[in-house]
Amino acid sequence: MALPQPDRFKPSADTFTCELRRRDGAAEIVLAGEVDIAARPPLDTVLHQALGTEKPDALVVDLTDVTFADSSTLHWLTEVKRTADASGARLTVTTAPGAVRDLLAITGMKSHLSD
Questions:
Q1: What is the pTM (predicted TM-score) of this model?
Q2: Architecture of domain 17-112 in CATH?
Q3: SS3 content of the chain, % helix, strand, coil (to 5)
Q4: pLDDT tens, residue by residue, 43-62
Q5: Max Cα separation, the chain?
Q6: What residue ranges do the domains of the chain occupy?
Protein backbone atom coordinates (compact mmCIF):
# COMPACT_ATOMS: atom_id res chain seq x y z
CA MET A 1 0.00 0.00 0.00
CA ALA A 2 1.52 3.29 -1.09
CA LEU A 3 1.42 6.31 1.19
CA PRO A 4 -0.19 9.43 -0.24
CA GLN A 5 2.24 12.10 -1.36
CA PRO A 6 1.88 15.63 0.05
CA ASP A 7 0.24 18.10 -2.30
CA ARG A 8 2.57 21.11 -2.79
CA PHE A 9 -0.38 23.23 -3.89
CA LYS A 10 -2.34 22.50 -0.73
CA PRO A 11 0.24 22.02 2.02
CA SER A 12 -0.94 20.75 5.36
CA ALA A 13 -0.65 23.09 8.32
CA ASP A 14 1.95 20.91 10.01
CA THR A 15 4.52 21.29 7.21
CA PHE A 16 5.51 24.78 8.42
CA THR A 17 6.18 26.45 11.76
CA CYS A 18 7.07 30.02 12.59
CA GLU A 19 8.10 31.42 15.97
CA LEU A 20 9.21 34.85 17.18
CA ARG A 21 11.76 35.03 19.98
CA ARG A 22 13.22 38.11 21.64
CA ARG A 23 16.44 38.39 23.60
CA ASP A 24 19.15 40.94 24.32
CA GLY A 25 17.78 43.63 21.99
CA ALA A 26 17.30 41.20 19.10
CA ALA A 27 14.26 39.68 17.45
CA GLU A 28 14.62 36.19 16.02
CA ILE A 29 12.19 34.65 13.55
CA VAL A 30 12.63 30.87 13.64
CA LEU A 31 11.17 28.93 10.72
CA ALA A 32 10.96 25.19 10.16
CA GLY A 33 9.57 22.87 7.52
CA GLU A 34 8.41 23.87 4.06
CA VAL A 35 8.30 27.62 3.40
CA ASP A 36 6.29 28.43 0.29
CA ILE A 37 3.50 30.78 -0.82
CA ALA A 38 1.06 29.26 1.69
CA ALA A 39 3.37 30.46 4.49
CA ARG A 40 3.28 34.10 3.41
CA PRO A 41 0.45 35.36 5.69
CA PRO A 42 2.07 34.12 8.93
CA LEU A 43 5.48 35.32 7.69
CA ASP A 44 4.14 38.83 7.14
CA THR A 45 2.48 38.78 10.56
CA VAL A 46 5.63 37.69 12.39
CA LEU A 47 7.74 40.27 10.55
CA HIS A 48 5.32 43.00 11.64
CA GLN A 49 5.44 41.70 15.22
CA ALA A 50 9.24 41.52 15.19
CA LEU A 51 9.79 45.09 13.98
CA GLY A 52 6.46 46.77 14.69
CA THR A 53 6.35 48.19 18.22
CA GLU A 54 9.63 47.13 19.78
CA LYS A 55 12.56 48.27 17.66
CA PRO A 56 15.29 45.63 17.96
CA ASP A 57 18.92 46.40 17.12
CA ALA A 58 19.17 43.12 15.22
CA LEU A 59 16.81 40.83 13.35
CA VAL A 60 17.75 37.20 12.88
CA VAL A 61 15.87 34.95 10.46
CA ASP A 62 16.72 31.36 11.35
CA LEU A 63 16.20 29.00 8.41
CA THR A 64 18.26 26.18 9.92
CA ASP A 65 15.29 23.78 10.06
CA VAL A 66 13.71 24.80 6.76
CA THR A 67 13.55 21.81 4.43
CA PHE A 68 12.09 23.57 1.38
CA ALA A 69 12.04 27.19 0.20
CA ASP A 70 10.76 28.63 -3.06
CA SER A 71 10.76 31.99 -4.82
CA SER A 72 8.07 33.34 -2.49
CA THR A 73 10.52 32.79 0.38
CA LEU A 74 13.15 34.80 -1.48
CA HIS A 75 10.64 37.57 -2.11
CA TRP A 76 9.72 37.59 1.58
CA LEU A 77 13.40 37.80 2.56
CA THR A 78 13.84 40.87 0.34
CA GLU A 79 10.89 42.42 2.18
CA VAL A 80 12.54 41.49 5.48
CA LYS A 81 15.74 43.23 4.38
CA ARG A 82 13.90 46.37 3.27
CA THR A 83 11.84 46.51 6.48
CA ALA A 84 14.84 45.82 8.73
CA ASP A 85 16.86 48.55 7.01
CA ALA A 86 13.99 51.02 7.40
CA SER A 87 13.71 50.26 11.12
CA GLY A 88 17.48 50.39 11.70
CA ALA A 89 17.83 46.68 12.55
CA ARG A 90 20.81 44.68 11.30
CA LEU A 91 19.64 41.55 9.43
CA THR A 92 21.28 38.16 9.75
CA VAL A 93 20.00 34.96 8.13
CA THR A 94 21.14 31.61 9.47
CA THR A 95 20.86 28.35 7.55
CA ALA A 96 22.16 24.83 7.65
CA PRO A 97 24.32 23.54 4.80
CA GLY A 98 22.13 22.23 2.01
CA ALA A 99 19.54 23.25 -0.55
CA VAL A 100 18.20 26.34 1.24
CA ARG A 101 21.67 27.76 1.82
CA ASP A 102 22.58 27.00 -1.81
CA LEU A 103 19.41 28.78 -2.99
CA LEU A 104 20.35 31.91 -1.05
CA ALA A 105 23.91 31.80 -2.37
CA ILE A 106 22.83 31.32 -6.00
CA THR A 107 20.38 34.23 -5.83
CA GLY A 108 22.88 36.65 -4.31
CA MET A 109 21.42 36.73 -0.82
CA LYS A 110 24.48 35.10 0.71
CA SER A 111 25.78 38.44 2.02
CA HIS A 112 23.20 38.26 4.81
CA LEU A 113 24.10 34.71 5.85
CA SER A 114 25.74 34.02 9.17
CA ASP A 115 28.64 31.57 8.90
A1: 0.83
A2: 2-Layer Sandwich (3.30)
A3: 40, 30, 30
A4: 999 999 999 888 899 999 99
A5: 55
A6: 17-112
